[in-house]
Amino acid sequence: xxxxxxxxxxxxTQKPRILVVxxxxxxxxxxxxxxxxxxxxxxxxxxxxxxxxxxxxESFQLILLDLMLPGRDGLSLLQILRNCSSTPVIIVxxxxxxxxxxxxxxxxxxxxxxxPFNKDELLLRIDAILRRTMKINxxxxxxxxxxxxxxxxxxxxxxxxKEVVTVTPTELSLLWTLMQNAGEILSxxxxxxxxxxxRFSQYDRSLDMHFSRVRRKLNDAGWDGSRLQTxxxxxxxxx
Length: 239
Hints:
Layout: E1 4-6, E2 17-21, H1 25-37, E3 41-45, H2 48-57, E4 62-65, H3 74-81, E5 89-93, H4 98-106, E6 111-114, H5 119-134, E7 143-146, E8 149-152, E9 157-160, E10 163-165, H6 169-180, H7 188-196, H8 206-220, E11 228-231, E12 235-238
Parallel strand pairs: 2-3, 2-4, 4-5, 5-6
Antiparallel strand pairs: 1-3, 7-8, 8-9, 9-10, 11-12
């Protein structure tokens, strides 16, 4: 089925573009209608390989991604996309087992929402991610530095010396918050509210997955990832 584009009658200037990757045409149309009515621009893809090509060629502020897709499954799509793009991704999938959530977050998703989902919750999660990536107050400090490690919110990137480290918006937000409070132990509850914009649940391992990915990426770039510390029973800190 070909890619389709949806739009409304209002001006689309500066409206965030969202790519909806969902092979269920009815659900895709419902999501599109919901997003359009909330002021977003929307493009639909119904095939995994086509969605990957579209996501790489065109510019989007966020991607809603199903896991079970024809052509290429959502997980492999995300893994390839993360090699060349930091566009925020929310997985929206009927696979709601904890193992699937962990796989999705480990592959680089910024969030994971199981079907069936509450429409208001989806919109809140989208808004939370877009506010982090699109509405940075330019009067605020835009960089944090710890030795050779630099986090730049305006450029939406992290670097170690001259090497750029590809991170997702959620990973950048997590690292920024830790660097802003270097040496301090930040509780999981605080980080869930600050970084993920939702309440902490002891059954939700989202933050652990993001933390592990940031640590591994910094190690790969030559910065000692063990300086991102897990303080069991208390939270996390960077030293």
